[in-house]
Amino acid sequence: MIKSLLIANRGEIACRVIRTARRLGIRTIAVYSDADANALHVRSADEAVHIGPSAARESYLVGEKIIAAAKQSGAEAIHPGYGFLSENAAFAEAVLDAGLVWVGPKPASITAMGLKDAAKTLMIAAGVPCTPGYLGENQDPANLANEAGKIGYPVLIKAVAGGGGKGMRLVEAAEDFADALASCQREASASFGNAHVLIEKYILSPRHIEVQVFGDSFGQVVHLFERDCSLQRRHQKVIEEAPAPGMDAATREAVCAAAVRAAQAVDYEGAGTIEFIADGSEGLRADRIWFMEMNTRLQVEHPVTEEITGQDLVEWQLRVASGEKLPKTQEELSINGWAMEARLYAEDPAKGFLPSIGTLELFELGKTEGGRVDTGVYEGAEVSPFYDPMIAKLIAHGDTRDLARERLSDMLHDSAVWPVRTNAAFLINALAHPDFAAGTVDTGLIGRDGEAMATDPEPSAEMLLDAAMALVAPTLAPGFRLNAPDRRVASFLLDGERVEIELDGPGSDEPETSILIAESGKVWQLQPWREDGTGHGHAGDGTILSPMPGKIIAVEVIEGQAVTKGQKLLTLEAMKMEHSLTAPFDGVVAELKAVAGAQVQVEAVLARIEALTE
After folding, report:
1. d(Cα 473, Cα 486) in Å, to the nearest integer?
2. Which value, to the nearest 10 degrees, does the dihedral of the CA atoms of residues 89, 94, 96, 99 take?
3. So what's the pLDDT on residue 569?
């Protein structure tokens, strides 16, 4: 068994790997950037090595620094986690050339599956069913548009080196193709250094089914059954579960067997995931499930597989990398119950899911029987703009799907994070959606009903009253009793908006403190209203502020231009994603400070829209 391990990653996956390594008696070494000097994975490891500035391209994405840190610390092996360099064949090769153990598949396997077009060609040869599409080398926009027309709309443009929903665009009509292609290639080039794309038929009732596979150096490959990751937003997974609802034994056998063939075709070792797209219009059928891609690493959603199989997949990785055989044979693996995972993001669904950054002054995650939390942050930690905004994964296991869903919802209801915003309330709404509850969800559900799911919940009247009474109780007049008939209406500021609450008791001077209210996965701040108006929320003056540090990559308007509510003004690239900023109402661009290519800080004034006067 490996004796010392460097984790070439950060956040919850680094903490997750450290947890298993410690149980196995393996010494752990963390790496960290400037932004992560006080991160949980740094605190959790036996040793930590600084590898550079906050930007990932200057730290976590620099393979030479990772390998130097491994040598400096005397690490025997490197675990890449997921993201960053985990699917970089050149880095894997460099690790091996340095005389270190690579906890992952062979570089040749990564290369074979790394480009989606080449992988599909390989899968077709291996007898794995694939979706129809264009995999050619001719990347001329006119040719790509022509191929899309041959396939028939809607089509999906996908970066061949892509992943995680980045470098992917759905195009529903020919007239939208050129803009979507340019945006897709731009994002792919920025994220992966490769603007090459493929085009494939978009399935109208798509379900995302993936199979966990594992191989060892003795030629053995097994599957650990399937996961359903169909609930997605902008092609990024939101809630995952295992097993897949509606999957009968015959279909499971066919799909999992195809996944094993796919892994065998590239002589696969370690953990991998074969992703399929299914046409769910008539339920899950083996003849309507096609190969999409292979992820040659551990997945974010691996805990649901662990929960239904009782296996520790990180332990499997470490044992295989140490030269051991797979811990279990296919016949020894079985499904026990149901598991669901929700990705808790530092983002504000009510503001278009813009990432939220800052200090976690309050960070409490719900607990329940059968519940599990994987996180890489703690109360008092900073959520920075430099990395993915996922701050935790909440996982629930139960004997039935309904029980797992209820337990996960309970965990989210009992979670409270402040002042950083999260998508907890959105996740609660998604779990309660009739289609998700029935297990008939497809990947388009959030696109259709996401606006309703993203609606901010309101604190209950009872919760507001309790909080208001807690604020004013110290200032109530002498002799006050909670059941006294005296009543008054007091004004408060609730998360930037003025509210009036009828209270029992006469009261005296207004209190100076504030109180946090946590309910339904959301947190509000309630504080006394000051008559001078201090603390008012935004006045709606049309000022467009940068919601986070980032780079302006496109400006769509000019000063003096008339705009309509919702019209795109500019595009900001931040936290590895593109974010569109739009006009808050009909008006004129009275001021424009945004310049394409410029770096901007949080709350920088980018533009000002002046309302039209009659």
Report:
1. 14
2. -170
3. 94
Q: Are 83 and 104 in contact (CB under 8 A)?
A: no
Q: What CA–CA distance (Å, rounded) separates 187 from 173?
A: 21
Instruction: Please say whether the beta carbons of 603 and 546 come within 8 A.
Output: yes
Q: What is the pLDDT of residue 492?
A: 85
Q: Which CATH architecture has domain 132-201?
A: 2-Layer Sandwich (3.30)
Residue 341 has pLDDT above 80, yes or no: yes
Q: How is residue 551 written in tokens?
A: 């780079």
Is residue 41 scored above 70 in pLDDT?
Answer: yes
Check if the beta carbon of residue 382 is closer than 8 Å to that of residue 306: no
- Residues forming a β-bridge with 169: 157
pLDDT digit string (tens) for 114-141? 877 788 889 999 999 988 889 889 999 9
Q: Could you give the C-alpha distances from 476 to 231, 500, 517, in angstroms and in order?
A: 50, 17, 21
Q: Phi and psi dihedrals of 64, rounded to 5?
A: -60, -40
Residue 603: C-alpha distances to residues 2, 340, 408, 545, 548 (Å): 48, 37, 35, 5, 7
Catalytic residues: 297
CA distances for 180 relative to 145, 156, 226, 277, 597, angstroms: 11, 10, 32, 22, 20
At residue 480, the pLDDT reads 41
- The predicted structure's pLDDT at residue 576: 64
Residue 105 identity: P
Please provide the DSSP assignment of 305-320 as one string: HHHHHT--HHHHHHHH
Residue 20 near residue 315, CB atoms below 8 Å: yes
Q: Find, among 258, 149, 240, the residue nearest to 199 by Cα.
A: 149
User: Would you list the domain boundaries of the chain?
Assistant: 4-103, 132-201, 210-215+227-453, 461-528, 543-611
Q: Is the domain defined by 4-103 classed in CATH 3.40.50.1110?
A: no
What does each C-alpha distance from 136 to 98, 120, 155, 406, 548 come to in angstroms? 36, 11, 15, 46, 38
Strand partners of residue 337: none
CATH architecture of the domain with residue range 543-611: Beta Barrel (2.40)
Distance CA 208, CA 5 (A): 33
Give me the architecture of the 210-215+227-453 domain, per CATH: 2-Layer Sandwich (3.30)
Look at residues 216, 219, 221, 224 and name the one whose alpha carbon lies nearest to residue 325. Answer: 216
- For residue 129, what are the β-bridge partners? none
